[in-house]
Specification:
alpha+beta, five-stranded mixed β-sheet, 12 helices, 56% helix, 8% strand
């Protein structure tokens, strides 16, 4: 039987899961208890159905995932005792803008500026654009490797592994228990790491045919074409997450290999947190028998038509 499409994200001492109508962030607090915040998903594509079309839904999903992810991180920091209060909407918006600006500098401005040094080899615009793309990919891989060496990030990456294992267990139709979840791989084809790697590769081909204008024109063209790159990448990762084609399965292996850096084998107590988060976003009849009870706190009213779950003290 086909399972619901579920995604997630590791947060501070926890996991955020996103189902068809709900998001849930489960965090283990300093007292060792699992706290779960569940909220309905409000997507702009529900108001404007055209945004569900291919090539448009990718950018919408990326922006909404970024906002949801920031809110989940803020909640998890508070529950884990690292912050006194959650970020306000203004602070969150400023944080997102700063993060996007930093990403533009790191992955757009620096590689396209550095590519000028290849002029000693050739002035061919196609070649220079390709070199820029490979520089961008090298910076991305170096960045992933560098942060994976940080002790605090390694713990977040363990929760990332717990998220993947739990989703694999659900998709296999097995009861969501620690023993079952730990049997599965920590690598998943729909991972955001896969998506980012695909973005890097797609951008190489999209930007390769843009010529070689001035630096500021190159930076502006890359920024303006990001929705196109995101749209293509999103469609590719949707296919990758469902395919059984052996050729495509081989093609996505680099993205899976990269997850050896962005995930770590989780501890059992981390898996427990991921299980609680996943169960909180699934309709009751979708939770495999034998998965146990859970705690679920809904802080916002659930809109009409959104699937809900029965909540029980666990």
């Amino acid at each position: 039987m086909a399972k619901l499409m579920v995604g997630g994200q590791a947060v501070i001492e926890g996991v955020m899961m996103r189902g068809p109508g709900l998001t849930a962030t489960a965090v283990r607090d300093p007292q060792g208890k699992i706290q779960v915040e569940t909220k309905p998903v409000h997507s702009i594509s529900e108001r404007f159905p055209i945004l569900k079309k291919p090539m448009l839904r990718g950018t919408v999903s990326l922006v909404e995932s970024l906002v949801i992810g920031m809110k989940s991180l803020s909640y998890s920091a508070k529950m884990a005792g690292e912050e006194d209060e959650q970020l306000s909407d203004k602070e969150m918006a400023m944080t997102i803008v700063f993060a996007l600006a930093l990403a533009c500098v790191l992955f757009i401005a620096i590689p396209t500026g550095a590519a000028k040094f290849f002029h000693v080899v050739t002035d061919d615009p196609f070649f220079l654009n390709l070199m820029e793309g490979f520089l961008r990919l090298a910076i991305f891989l170096g960045y992933i490797w560098a942060i994976s060496r940080m002790s605090d990030i390694r713990r977040v990456f363990q929760y990332h592994g717990a998220e993947h294992k739990t989703i694999h267990c659900y998709e296999a139709g097995l009861p969501l228990t620690v023993e079952n979840v730990q049997k599965f791989s920590r690598l998943h084809p729909r991972c955001g790491t896969n998506f980012l790697l695909i973005v890097m590769l797609v951008s190489i081909f999209v930007f390769a045919f843009l010529g070689w204008p001035s630096l500021w024109e190159r930076i502006a063209s890359r920024v303006l074409l990001l929705p196109v790159v995101a749209g293509i990448s999103y469609e590719l990762i949707r296919v990758a997450g469902r395919t059984t084609n052996p050729i495509l399965l081989q093609a996505i292996k680099p993205g899976l290999w990269l997850q050896y850096l962005t995930t770590r084998p989780p501890q059992d107590d981390m898996v427990e947190v991921a299980i609680e988060s996943l169960k909180a976003v699934l309709p009751k009849d979708e939770i495999p028998a034998g998965s146990g009870e859970y705690i679920n706190t809904i802080e916002e009213p659930v809109p009409e038509g959104v699937p809900t779950v029965d909540c029980a003290k666990g």
